[in-house]
Write a structure and sequence with these properties.
The protein is of the alpha/beta class. It contains 13 helices and 12 strands. α5 runs parallel beside α6.
Length: about 325
């Protein structure tokens, strides 16, 4: 039996489809019935009978922050893919991010130790990797610098510490640090927001850039690592380093839209994050651009995936084809 936490998210839902489609016995948690509809939608991108595959999953209603209700998830389980996480870059969400990402991960690690899990794969993020030095490519060995990190990155890094703690107590683990994951189905968050933004024909693009990876590459890397003898290692998963302008130039034409041509200046970013702070603290609005995130947009971050290529003889797929597929599914949505 394989347990997938966060099975109703982008990575988790695609992982569930891959595992079920390959004859694996799988269990996953969910929090609401509405969240399971997203999984059904994702399955529908790849099969005409999503309900049949959904019914093959052992669904258990459970919250990773409620350790008292997690035991039913672990009974009879051999492997754990811990995908569940909260994503937010709003500093006001730090406590709930810490509760979900750090304490929730500690719960998963503790129960994995309790039930003698054979191996755990933790889905972290490049946000938990230390910054580049003198514009060199970022690797798994970059030194962590909390002062330059956003609240999401801080909690993902601290969650990694819980996973490393588990490894010291005898739990076999691997950690992946994917870049921005390109995959269909979640159009209002993560990479999906780029497709939504491009579809509106906006004139401006944000500066900077980061590493991108296809959802298929993430799933293949995870499952190959879990089936290998590799343990106590972390791996950056980035197929291609691009600016945000380059990404939108790939997406917009596939949607029949003219790509944005004007870059948001650093001066505009400085003004906006300050106004955003006022909106949040005076009017109670959610933050759209924190200071840490704004500063991170000043430069393009370049990531090195040499380690995963070497350790697994791993070959990344075609990012452009993945973008085309996402655009096709975006256009087809109701």
């Amino acid at each position: 039996m394989i347990l997938v936490t966060g099975g109703t998210g982008l990575i988790g839902s695609h992982l569930l489809f891959h595992l079920i489609n390959n004859g694996k016995t799988v269990r996953s948690n969910y929090r609401t019935e509405a969240s399971m509809e997203k999984v059904h939608q994702v399955f529908g991108y790849y099969t005409d009978n999503p309900s049949v595959l959904m019914d093959q999953i052992d669904w258990v209603k459970a919250d990773i922050t409620d350790i008292g209700g997690l035991d039913p998830l672990f009974e009879g389980v051999d492997q754990v893919y811990h995908c569940a996480a909260l994503i937010s870059f709003d500093p006001k969400d730090f406590k709930i991010l810490e509760h979900t990402n750090v304490e929730g991960t500690a719960n998963i690690v503790n129960l994995s130790l309790k039930y003698g899990i054979k191996k755990l794969c933790y889905v972290s993020s490049i946000a938990a990797i230390g910054p580049s030095i003198k514009q060199q490519k970022v690797t798994e060995e970059n030194e962590w610098n909390e002062a330059k990190a956003n609240v999401y990155g801080i909690t993902k890094y601290n969650a990694e510490l819980e996973v490393w703690r588990g490894s010291q107590e005898g739990l076999p683990i691997v950690i992946i640090n994917p870049g921005v994951v390109i995959g269909p189905g979640f159009w209002k968050s993560g990479s999906g927001s780029f497709f939504t933004y491009a579809s509106k024909g906006k004139k401006y693009f944000i500066p900077g850039g980061t590493g991108f990876v296809t959802i298929n590459d993430v799933i293949h890397a995870m499952t190959q690592l879990m089936d290998s003898s590799i343990q106590t290692e972390r791996f950056i998963l980035v197929n291609q380093n691009m600016t945000y302008e380059e990404l939108l130039q790939k997406i917009a034409p596939e949607l029949g839209i003219t790509p944005p041509t004007k870059e948001v200046s650093k001066f505009m970013l400085e003004c906006f994050w300050r106004w955003d702070w006022v909106r949040s603290n005076v009017f109670g609005k959610r933050r759209k651009l924190s200071k840490a995130v704004a500063k991170g947009l000043y430069h393009q971050k370049i990531y090195n995936s040499k380690k995963i290529k070497s350790e697994l003889d791993f070959t990344f797929g075609d990012l452009d084809k993945s973008i085309e597929f996402c655009c096709e599914k975006f256009i087809q949505q109701p």
